[in-house]
Amino acid sequence: MSIGAKWEAVYSTRAADEVSWFRPHLETSLELINRFAGGSSAAIIDVGGGEATLADDLLQQGFQNLTVLDISKTALEVARKRIGSAADRVHWIVSDITEVNPPASAYDLWHDRAVFHFLTMPEARKAYIERATSAIKAGGHLVLSTFGPNGPTKCSGLDVMRYSPEALQALLAPAFRLVADLTEIHTTPAGAEQQFTYGVFQKS
């Protein structure tokens, strides 16, 4: 099964609040975006946005230039239907982030909660970082959230990587420098606790 088919199966058979990464609202992401985006006119891309409510909340806060990318068409359709007519104000992209080529210097802020840690092969991580480096404006920010050093080793049956802020910085240098980080304990719908690392990186 291809990775795209894998995620289509996940989103086609499980409700939004049944996946382990579900949160009603991504409060930490929202706080970091508001802190580093540079205002409501900022161009923001949410990579792996899926069914998350981040786009809903950013629209309600007045953000005007939003893009949501996910490998699952099903997940994005769920989000679009939930948002309603305001979804027309969002640019939706169905693609694997390691294969698509976003426009150069298109975004002030790139947000990713829980995609990067699925990239277990070095070539996939290299492709991701190349795309982020190209797509983020000089001085713009990458808000990256992954499983932390004490987080799970698998998710949805797939192997994952675990990172500290320093480990992420080592991968992202020299194009990006770490400007903020935090650790969050996420409680899944089933009640399990998962450690997440959040890093905010500014493009040189």
Describe the structure.
By secondary structure, this protein is an alpha/beta fold. The protein has a single domain, classed as Rossmann fold (3-Layer(aba) Sandwich). Helices cover 30% and strands 30% of the residues. The protein has a seven-stranded mixed beta sheet. The chain has a two-stranded antiparallel sheet with strand order 6-7. It starts with a helix and ends with a strand.
Secondary structure elements and their pairing?
Blueprint: H1 3-13, H2 27-36, E1 43-47, H3 54-60, E2 65-70, H4 73-83, E3 90-94, E4 107-113, H5 122-135, E5 136-147, E6 154-155, E7 158-159, H6 165-172, E8 176-187, E9 193-203
Parallel strand pairs: 1-2, 1-4, 2-3, 4-5
Antiparallel strand pairs: 5-9, 6-7, 8-9
- Count every beta strand, where a strand is a DSSP E run of 2 or more residues: 9
Q: Which range best describes the helical content: under 10%, 10-25%, 25-40%, 40-55%, 55-70% or over 70%?
A: 25-40%
Specify the number of helices.
6
Distance between the termini: 38 Å
Strand content: 25-35%
